[in-house]
């Protein structure tokens, strides 16, 4: 039943797109077949599960996981910043607690070292939200001042005003959004920028457009599971024929599906089991991932409307910020990725490290794209090391500050 609903959604989207899409029915079919290659492994697991577990039981299990997992419940002082096109961007600030300097958590993170007096700004990835940094936020809570924000059209931020007017999303636009949030949430003092996937690209775009801000305000940078460009060459673990079909037809399919939001969203809900398998495959590598964590990631991704998915996808094919990395040359930089990342492969992090030879490159074994959720201790420990190293940079920025 679920698969028929998804198929009807694709057919209706193609019909709504007009005669051109009806003539392209064969092309859409090829794209569907290519996407089916991605789904095959997950679908097999789902089919086996259905032989032994009823849909009601699976639904109750998901509800139980939602109730059991405390993930995504951390909240800070809310704020809103207005982007240059009028979009309202939501952020939260976690201040340093009065006892933060002597807390057991601070000692576990930093030992005898002193964390830099900075504001750490976390930027999340595509189809996620600020809660994707749950473990790192919990570890740093009250110890270091942190800012967590939702990219436009994600989480609690408003839908992009420019996109409502028909303008495409670009990574450059996201870089300007980040500058808006920084001006509102961290108007003074040194900052450390942490970006995962699309968030890392956002940090690079900030450097491309505001290199003086990097020189004057940024004490350190962490780029997690991200890429400086050439994403059009990623094969997502597909055979050559499958990935070529996806690259050719997926943008058009997404655009057509984005015009039939209500119908497609019903299809997504009906095929929740299948997409849960896909999300797990492309988010994690470990076999023993906590089911509540996997469900947490699934909820974040499910909450991103299909038209937002369609709006953002083309931006990644055009993304190229290799030259912007030069702005980070004199800063402490952490480049971290999972060795089994199928979305932004670790080779892309290695390419970044080659352009920043003084950066610390960390490749986490048995880790997928959501490495900060899959191996939170490793990511948190490396961030703590970065903050300790950022002390020198923070002192330098303080001297430069008016």
UniProtKB/TrEMBL annotation:
GO MF annotations, alphabetized: hydrolase activity
Keywords from the UniProt entry: Hydrolase, Membrane, Transmembrane, Transmembrane helix
InterPro entries (UniProt xref): AB_hydrolase_1, AB_hydrolase_fold, AB_hydrolase_sf
Entry-linked Pfam families: Abhydrolase_1
Domain AB hydrolase-1: 119-376
Spans through the membrane: 26-48
Xref: PANTHER family: HYDROLASE, PUTATIVE (AFU_ORTHOLOGUE AFUA_2G14860)-RELATED, MONOACYLGLYCEROL LIPASE
Name the record gives this protein: Alpha/beta fold hydrolase
Organism per entry: Streptomyces pathocidini
């Amino acid at each position: 039943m679920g698969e028929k609903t998804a198929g009807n959604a694709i057919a209706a989207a193609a019909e709504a797109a007009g005669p051109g899409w009806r003539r392209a029915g064969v092309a859409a079919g090829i794209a569907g077949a290519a996407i089916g290659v991605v789904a095959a492994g997950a679908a097999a697991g789902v089919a086996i599960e259905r032989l032994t577990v009823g849909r009601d039981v699976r639904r109750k299990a998901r509800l139980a996981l939602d109730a059991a997992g405390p993930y995504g419940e951390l909240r800070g002082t809310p704020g809103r910043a207005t982007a240059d096109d009028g979009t309202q961007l939501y952020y939260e600030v976690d201040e340093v607690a009065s006892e933060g300097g002597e807390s057991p958590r601070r000692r576990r993170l930093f030992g005898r070292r002193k964390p830099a007096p900075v504001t750490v700004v976390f930027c999340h990835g595509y189809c996620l939200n600020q809660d994707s940094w749950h473990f790192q936020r919990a570890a740093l809570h009250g110890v270091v001042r942190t800012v967590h924000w939702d990219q436009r059209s994600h989480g609690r931020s408003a839908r992009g005003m420019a996109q409502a007017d028909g303008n495409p999303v670009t990574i450059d636009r996201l870089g300007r959004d980040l500058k808006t949030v920084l001006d509102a949430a961290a108007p003074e003092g040194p900052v450390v920028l942490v970006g995962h996937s699309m968030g890392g690209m956002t940090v690079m775009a900030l450097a491309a457009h505001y290199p003086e801000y990097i020189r004057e305000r940024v004490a350190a940078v962490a780029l997690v599971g991200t890429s400086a460009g050439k994403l059009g060459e990623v094969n997502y673990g597909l055979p050559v024929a499958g990935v070529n079909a996806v690259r050719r037809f997926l943008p058009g399919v997404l655009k057509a599906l984005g015009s039939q939001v209500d119908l497609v969203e019903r299809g997504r809900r009906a095929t929740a089991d299948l997409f849960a398998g896909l999300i797990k495959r492309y988010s994690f590598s470990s076999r023993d991932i906590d089911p509540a964590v996997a469900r947490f990631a699934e909820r974040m991704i499910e909450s991103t409307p299909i038209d937002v998915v369609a709006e953002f996808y083309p931006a990644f094919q055009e993304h190229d910020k290799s030259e912007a990395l030069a702005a980070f040359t004199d800063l402490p930089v952490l480049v971290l990725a999972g060795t089994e990342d199928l979305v932004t492969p670790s080779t892309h992090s290695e390419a970044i490290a080659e352009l920043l030879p003084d950066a610390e490159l960390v490749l986490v074994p048995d880790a997928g794209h959501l490495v900060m959720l899959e191996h939170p201790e490793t990511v948190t420990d490396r961030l703590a090391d970065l903050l300790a190293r950022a002390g020198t940079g923070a002192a330098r920025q303080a001297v430069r500050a008016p």
